[in-house]
Amino acid sequence: MELLRIATAGSVDDGKSTLIGRLLFDSKALFDDQLANIEHTSAQRGDAYVNLALVTDGLRAEREQGITIDVAYRYFATPRRKFIIADTPGHQRYTRNMVTGASTADLAIVLVDARLGVLEQSRRHAFVASLLGISHVVVCVNKMDLVGWSQDVCSRITEDFAAFAAKLEIRDVTFIPISALHGDNVVDRSRNMPWYEGPPLLYHLEHVHITSDRNFVDCRFPVQWVIRPIDEAHHDYRGYAGRVASGVLRRGDEVVVLPSMARTRVARIETFDGEATEAFPPMNVTVMLTDDLDVSRGDMLCRPQNLPSVQKDLEAMLCWFDEEPLREDKAYVLLHTTRSIKATVQSIRYRIDVTTLSRGDATTLAMNDIGRVHLRAASPLFFDDYQKNRETGCFVLVDPANNGTVAAGMLMDVHVAPSPNDATRGGAVVWLTGLSGSGKSTIGDALRKRLERDGRAVFVVDGDDLRKGLSSDLGFSAADRRENVRRASHVASMLAKTGHVAIVTLISPETRAREDARRVAEKASLPFIEVWVSTPLEECERRDPKGLYKRARAGEIPQFTGIHEPYEPPSDADVNIPIGATIDEAVDQIHRTIARATLRSAP
Amino acid sequence: MPYRLSHLDALEAEAIFVLREVAAQLERPVLLFSGGKDSIVMLRLAEKAFRPARFPFPVMHVDTGHNFPEVIAFRDRRIHELGERLLVASVQESIDKKRVVEDSRPYASRNRLQTVTLLDAIAQHRFDAAIGGARRDEERSRAKERIFSFRDEAGQWDPKNQRPELWHLYNGRIRRGEHVRVFPISNWTELDVWAYVERERLELPSIYFAHEREVFEHEGMLLAVVPFLRAPADGRFKALVRYRTVGDASCTGAVRSEARTVREVIDEIAKTRITERGQTRADDHATDAAMEDRKREGYF
Lengths: 603, 300
Description:
The structure holds 2 protein chains of 2 kinds. Chain A is of the alpha/beta class. Helix content of chain A is 27%, strand content 28%. The longest helix of chain A has 20 residues, at 478-497. Chain B is of the alpha/beta class. Chain B has 2 domains: 7-193 and 289-297, Rossmann fold (3-Layer(aba) Sandwich), CATH 3.40.50.620; 204-285, no CATH class. Helices cover 34% and strands 16% of the residues of chain B. Chain B has 10 helices and 10 strands. Chain B has helices spanning 7-25, 37-50, 69-82, 91-96, 114-124, 190-199, 262-271, 276-280, 282-285, 290-297; strands spanning 29-32, 59-63, 86-90, 129-131, 148-151, 179-182, 211-218, 221-224, 237-243, 254-256. In chain B, strands 3-2-1-4-6-5 form a 6-stranded mixed beta sheet, with helices on both faces. In chain B, strands 8-7-9-10 form a 4-stranded antiparallel beta sheet, with no helix packed on it. In chain B, helix 1 packs across helix 2 and helix 6 (190-199) packs antiparallel against helix 7 (262-271). The radius of gyration of chain B is 19 Å and the shape is globular. The chains are: A alpha/beta, B alpha/beta. At the A-B interface, helix 2, strand 2, strand 3, helix 4 and strand 9 of A face helix 1 and helix 2 of B.
């Protein structure tokens, strides 16, 4: 049996609580004493009929005011699925609760009162659903009994809503005309609307396909807790416990530990019930690594070819919850995966009008406002775009003064539009040299992401790519290798001339060949930045990400740099990346140098 | 698509995540244990979260002194098997120390007195998190409770001022003297708990299964004849009963049942038409908003 999490949203009087009461009642999830209780309360309030909405209205204040004021969770099951409903209020003051309920939902039910049509609230709910990355939205056109079960009314609302939804990123919108009060098309098919050909609501909830909504591609394992038993039997036991946020982690997988960038392998995946060969979301497992590394809570295991963005400067959509508005001079605590980091809001890009979806200038965000902001964290976050990966793209902000949760955010992995005061648009050649396995490609890729966020055009000229294409005619003799470097240097300079930052990641062991490359660039008046990734041979050989050293030692690869052929270290590289530098430190250092160099060369 | 978890596995995963989160975020958590099926499930979940290490917190029982002896015996045996630390906070002691005054009316429950004993124990041991096995399906005001539920210095819950709880990001930040209540199995239903008991082959106190017991009727419930309850001299009778919850014997009613195994209990619950609390907890009947009032005071 599968679990489906639903968020319901609706305005004060459009019958959301009645719909849930009806779902529970008709699917026989209501018990006799609960029914007796609401019958009693209904009678006391003088309601004309048993008010099913009372089932969900839990708190006394709500019963007195007759509205739902907080998120309430309801449970029911059919033989096919178990359902968790986060019943969230539609009252405008409580948008934050709707965001809360929607944050874990697979599907959202938006109610529209057939008599009133698509109101601001319905639009707001649809927008929040799309913002929170809910793939499935069911629009229940309710109170059809009050419009004479009219197909025309329903069609008008459907068209109206669909026009709005087209502007949003919702993959699947379904319309169902219902009467929650009378039960039409809720659990049982309505006899009053023969023109409606789709299934009733419950049938849809039971059958909608949700597994493909999850991210099984990008492997992310945030370490939550380190298990180190203090007893004789488990002397060397060191297990990294946590939940697979996305992707699939397998025994034997090569992994990179963020932020140290140390590479290792998954030795075992353990659970209380025994060993597992693989783990996928939302499984909780304990991972044992082959190497004895210093890994702690907040670190993240990923696959080497698929790393998240690692950034301090963050772009995000932010929903503000607190009565005290956002302050740009205040440091908040940002909770993300299993980490908490200080962060400040650098600027508010715009505030979004959730009814019209138009963007407007804003100096702050007040309660219920949603806007795009630029945040700066005290240390880099390991994240993905929220729309691609909910678990690593979400965060909340906490006010350190009172520890209240004041905002929720969704990170964007975007190219930031260049701002006029950015240093320059000039191209450059950044040449990363170092032994095989020293980390050139990893640093090069992180640098690319960072520069792209600055709004710059970037191209990585990768050694392996060259060998597969442009230099596929070359072998590994000294002359052929020199020729390979020569080709790379010309390609890089051509790209730099068009304004690109060309990042070359090539072992390029000979000082002479690298000097030639510098001359090619400088002849074209382009800055050339030589970066030495100085990871020593022993460490590169220990990492051996592609197994090349092993093969070279076994004699399978001749003329391998560092083993058969010498590597000539640069004597005065522009940037020197020492072993032990984190990827972010490396990127920072190169980034600063590029900024200085391209500023000088800007026309 | 092979990567799919059953709903029970998904609920278990969520609970394990929450347990590890409390351990990581708070300095001095405590796991509350009542001897009931929910807290027995909690013990298994803690094993799953922390083994092969020991639990990073002690286990505490708030003993009303009105417990069923079967439950106390079970508690001691289970904790011993697990090799974990057990603390007992006693309501009787709170009464002796005049921290609370016992209601002297017949059939008065000590349930409400537990609140003081619990808050005293939290203060005494400087616990900053109390983990419990409460579920949102138990009662209407519980349906609104967060998984990490903030309590002020007086141990009070403010339902209108709860921290928004999004995704799997739990905010356990507090100031000295405040604490959080943590409910890892919030999203489980009674049936889920039983299905889990069956799957994990968890042992439960014998009173959860049909047995013959001397009982009497009180306000529509069957209460056990036990020394500390002044059962009426007439009106006592023997019946085949079992308990759906094991709280204070003075306010926990038995239900007529022939279910002697976990499977039979599950079948019986699947057919039943009355909620767990409605059927067996006298204290919730008092007023419509009874639970909400007690929770505001700091009741678990």
